[in-house]
Design a protein that fits this description.
Largest sheet of chain A: 5 strands, mixed
Strand content of chain A: 15-25%
Order of helices and strands of chain A: HEHEEEHEHHHHEEEEEHHEEEEEEEE
Number of helices of chain A: 9
CATH superfamily of the largest domain in chain A: Creatinase/methionine aminopeptidase superfamily
Structural class of chain A: alpha+beta
Radius of gyration of chain A: 23 Å
Shape of chain A: elongated
Distance between the termini of chain A: 48 Å
CATH class of the largest domain in chain A: Alpha Beta
Oligomer: homodimer
Helix content of chain A: 25-40%
Strand order of the largest sheet of chain A: 4-3-2-1-5
Number of domains of chain A: 2
Chain lengths: 368, 368
């Protein structure tokens, strides 16, 4: 399967005006090789060009991984002395005749560390942004990928269900987050979570990207939990909002509005419409309610091997949805310094609509 | 404390020939701000120049974090449309008068994503490598940092002690790794582990960077476990090797040699000697035994906020050890396609020697 992916990439290079691409450790490299390499102080890159075996540059102590490649690669390994590394990159570029050519890069993944060695190896080459070509490889999920994402959703939901009965007034956000992490692994998440869970109560819940703090839960708080699991490298990314004891009427109201917006967003997806339509369908529910200015982020993002990837559900994104694309629908209303609400689900485009991968109840539940 | 760190950095810029530095999310940014930002598709950077408030560029939905800064910063926030981002970077560079100046970068952390926006904001600037200046900020750990590392060691040791009685012949490497991860979080690790544990048995143990596989433990295997915990952002990184049932005499012998090398390496550290001496003290034990060519990596690396950071215990590194520097001592012998052994501890340089932070037994234990 990785060979088919590699062939799909090399076949697309010409149309993208590229002679090659160079990848460093990250989801695209894993997608194309089935292997995990780590971002570290020792640079690792794979050069891919049509009609030639891919060329790998890596530290000698990673050489056993070459045997695990699903297709033939030519490897240039370097020792522990950084002064010798540049030479391996030069030999790698020469092996593919890449100097002076157009070598696509992935700016979101490639660091200046790898890039400086790559450039030293092929100083006359151009390095255009190949993000859209490379993201295109992973945009449409196949049955196996969707099955892994469903399993990641189930692990996440089961983990939260195990935590909810333990949540009590007086617990800190960090305590809840720690217990959630334990439950995610107990239920079978891969060792690397897609992201550290957000657990935010009261005023902290009005910050969409809060980190769990030492603040204790109080009666009247909204509690936002944004969490996910990873299974075979594919992730889930969900959010639910709870009421801690009795909350005021406006909070109940904004929860109802966000729940409606989430439902509208989940229902909107189908092949052939632009991503913008999912954003508009979701956002218009909140705007009509008068809370539009309190929904200060896009409706969602693609998911798969990364917690954020293409396609993005944004009002200006005219990219058309296609069968197999997977993304989040996550409207929110954030009343600064008071409380916030977000409800997030994961959907995948089917032949005639969108399948929702997550089914944890969305109604406002009173806990604590 | 973060203010003192900031002042230390700005005071050092002049001597480094830099007018400013620009940082993206990562350990250096966290060290200087006490805050966590995430690497994502939305670029976040902090510009730091002497005698001016630092300047932050970030997405609008991260604006609540500005209030959490421990000192005054000037923030330029951008909305959800990428076409508008470049403008915020231009305003940020202008606010500090940085175009045409020397702005240091951290190549190991900065991605082409952030760098392309920074360059668009200050196209006439130079961007020299500021790694050594920035790494220097974090080289010598203070008492609070060492206390956090000790706690991270204790969490890791307690977690492994909870796993050892569960290890049985027939278990897969992945099963052991999963249980270890659960125990790391149960014992209080931060939600993000410093790295996914390595659990490798039999021939896999001869690959220093193996990933846990579906291979089942067999009698006669060596089992290498390389794992760590994180506490308040500071990490531990340990390795122990076990015998699964009765192993052959050569494996017992190489374990004894590695244990001696580890002891020599732990004893070697003291202020004023070059890092190379720690490598030589460790490596010479293995070389004298005749297994030198099977120890194919450096003796260790610095640890702190990252699993790999300066200083590196490498034969060519003449950097002098100073009080407060922390690093690993991790000799190994890897008999390719057979079995491997590694024993890794964490040490910190004191006023007259080196304190070993880890005390889990190192003798070969027979388990399973």
């Amino acid at each position: 399967m990785t060979l088919a992916r590699l062939q799909k990439l090399t076949a697309s290079l010409n149309a993208s005006g590229l002679d090659a691409v160079v990848l460093n450790p990250g989801p695209t490299l894993t997608h194309l090789t089935g292997l995990q390499f780590h971002l570290m102080e020792r640079p690792v890159v794979l050069f891919i060009a049509p009609n030639q075996d891919p060329v790998l540059v890596l530290p000698e102590l990673e050489l056993p991984k070459v045997d695990l490649f699903p297709y033939k690669v030519q490897a240039f390994a370097y020792g522990e002395l950084p002064s010798e590394w540049e030479n391996s990159f030069r030999k790698a570029a020469q092996a593919l005749g890449l100097d002076g050519k157009r070598i696509g890069v992935e700016p979101r993944q490639m660091r200046l560390l790898e890039f400086s060695y790559v450039k030293a190896g092929a100083p006359e080459a151009e390095y255009p942004d190949a993000s859209s070509t490379l993201a295109g490889l992973r945009l449409k999920k196949d049955a196996e990928e969707i099955a892994a994402m469903k399993r990641a959703v189930k692990i996440a939901q089961d983990a939260l269900n195990a935590v909810i009965p333990q949540i009590k007034i007086g617990m800190t956000e960090r305590e809840i987050a720690s217990e959630l992490v334990v439950q995610l692994f107990k239920h079978g998440s891969d060792p690397e979570l897609p992201f550290a869970p957000i657990v935010s109560g009261g005023p902290n819940s009005a910050n969409p990207h809060a980190s769990p703090s030492e603040r204790k839960l109080q009666t009247g708080d909204m509690l936002v939990i944004d969490w996910g699991a990873s299974y075979n490298g594919y992730i889930s990314d969900l959010t639910r909002t709870f009421a801690i004891g009795e909350v005021d009427d406006e909070l109940k109201k904004i929860h109802r509005i966000v729940q409606e917006a989430n439902a509208a967003g989940r229902a909107a997806g189908k092949p052939g419409i632009p991503c913008a339509e999912v954003d508009i369908a979701t956002r218009s529910v909140i705007e009509k309610s008068g809370y539009g200015k309190y929904f200060n982020h896009r409706t969602g993002h693609g998911i798969g091997m990364e917690a954020h990837e293409a396609p993005y559900m944004r009002g200006d994104n005219m990219q058309l949805l296609e069968t197999g694309m997977a993304y989040t629908v996550e409207p929110g209303i954030y009343l600064t310094n008071r409380n916030g609400v977000r409800i997030e689900d994961n959907v995948v485009i089917t032949e005639d609509g969108a399948e929702v991968l997550s089914d944890l109840p969305r109604e406002l539940r009173v806990i604590g």
